[in-house]
From TrEMBL:
InterPro entries: 7TM_GPCR_serpentine_rcpt_Str. Interacts with odr-4. Belongs to the nematode receptor-like protein str family. PANTHER family: 7-TRANSMEMBRANE DOMAIN RECEPTOR C.ELEGANS, SEVEN TM RECEPTOR. It is found in: Cell projection, Cilium membrane. GO terms for cellular component: ciliary membrane. One of its GO terms (molecular function) is G protein-coupled olfactory receptor activity. This is Serpentine receptor class r-10. It is a multi-pass membrane protein. The chain crosses the membrane at residues 21-40, 46-67, 79-103, 123-147, 167-189, 237-263, 283-311, 317-341. The keyword Glycoprotein applies. Keywords: Cell membrane, Cell projection, Chemotaxis, Cilium, Glycoprotein, Membrane, Olfaction, Receptor, Sensory transduction, Transmembrane, Transmembrane helix. It comes from the Eukaryota.
Length: 383
């Protein structure tokens, strides 16, 4: 009798311990992924906040340098620089209002508003569209900078067409692309019941947010019926193609202008003094960095992440690279000019201005149909 009671009690205690152990293991298994997701979300927001703060500093310093130093160096180009630098500050504020979180799931790319407006579905939708349109304006203003440089270096005789109020005409394509991207997202990526149903579970699991209550936009390429047959979502495809065309046209403009400027400078170096050749080398380095940085932080990343759902390649949280690159770029871009433009660098390092004598103009009459004025402009930029 005592043996049976002992065995019974031992079994009960063992069972309780086993149950407790299972519960503890289950709790650990449940808590760990949640903790990982919280850390990842927090890391993204820390990056966004850090990029925002750094962008305020670097761009404000850049505006001061442009105001103090650029008038004699850049001519009308300083106005183009001012517009882009001031807009970079505005862009980071728009990003702070949105605090976007992104996710790739199956045939869908989704962007969720994670700021205080995330449960304001109507306002949040407009904020998401504004954030996307602002990205388009950022990349088109960058292309505008390169186009102006191309005109100044390769076609200086046409600079007179951009004097005075006519310089404003240079920004018309940027404004057009801003509204184009805004409405492509507004109508083509708007929330639907099908999109909520498709991604609700995964977003609830990953971000602990209910899509039916959260402001979001989504790009979904395919609809799948109960039989497994897929059909095109025409509005989403048109939106995707429109956005990709804007990205492609902007980067093609930058690449075309950069290549033309590069070979123009290379061609002109044959008849330059060693000092002028060194100045041109600095400008070439600037061009390389200012072309590579947006490509690796914005163009290639956004284009790739938006395209992967076509093949139902779900990269999950890696989609946040879009937002990460877009928040880092405005903070880093001014540093390139601050470092490579000698007058800016000397001011920041408290060095006295180094006087550089511009070579004899007659020495600058180069082959390859180069223009004297373009070479003088290049010298002034780097002195």
């Amino acid at each position: 009798m005592h043996i049976r009671v002992f065995v019974s009690e031992w079994a009960e205690v063992s069972g309780n311990r086993t149950e407790t152990l299972i519960q503890n293991n289950f709790t650990v298994i449940t808590i760990v992924p949640i903790a990982v997701r919280i850390v990842m979300n927090s890391s993204l927001h820390i990056l966004q906040y850090s990029g925002f703060g750094l962008a305020q500093v670097t761009n404000l310093v850049m505006l001061i340098l442009i105001h103090k130093k650029a008038k004699g160096l850049f001519g009308n180009y300083r106005h183009v620089m001012t517009v882009f630098t001031a807009y970079s500050i505005l862009y980071t504020w728009i990003e702070m209002i949105a605090l976007p979180l992104m996710y790739d799931h199956g045939s869908m790319f989704i962007l969720i508003i994670d700021s205080c407006l995330r449960y304001e579905k109507l306002i949040g939708h407009y904020v998401a569209c504004l954030f996307c349109g602002s990205f388009a304006l950022c990349i088109t203003l960058l292309a505008t900078q390169f186009y102006y440089r191309y005109i100044a270096v390769c076609q200086p005789v046409n600079l007179v067409r951009l004097n005075g109020w006519r310089l404003c005409l240079l920004f018309i394509p940027s404004i057009f692309f801003f509204f184009a991207w805004f409405f492509l997202v507004f109508f083509g990526m708007k929330e639907t019941e099908g999109k909520v149903k498709y991604a609700r579970e995964i977003i609830l699991e990953v971000y602990k947010e209910d899509l039916s209550k959260t402001a979001f936009i989504a790009l979904q390429f395919w609809d799948t019926d109960s039989d497994g047959n897929r059909s095109f979502r025409v509005s989403d495809w048109l939106s995707y193609l429109g956005c990709l065309s804007i990205i492609g046209s902007c980067f093609s403009t930058i690449l075309f202008c950069a290549v033309k400027i590069y070979f123009k400078l290379k061609c002109s170096q044959n008849v330059m003094s060693s000092k002028t050749r060194e100045l041109h080398r600095q400008l070439l380095k600037t061009l390389i960095f200012q072309t590579a940085l947006p490509f690796f932080t914005m163009y290639s990343v956004v284009g790739t992440i938006l395209s992967l759902p076509i093949f139902e390649i779900g990269v999950g949280l890696i989609a946040n690279l879009c937002g990460s690159g877009a928040c880092v770029y405005p903070a880093l871009e001014p540093l390139i000019a601050m470092y490579f433009v000698k007058d800016f660098r000397n001011t920041l390092t408290c060095k006295s201005k180094v006087e550089v004598t511009v070579p004899n103009i007659e020495m600058l009459i180069a082959p390859c149909n180069s223009q004297i004025s373009s070479l003088v402009l290049i010298n002034k930029v780097l002195i």
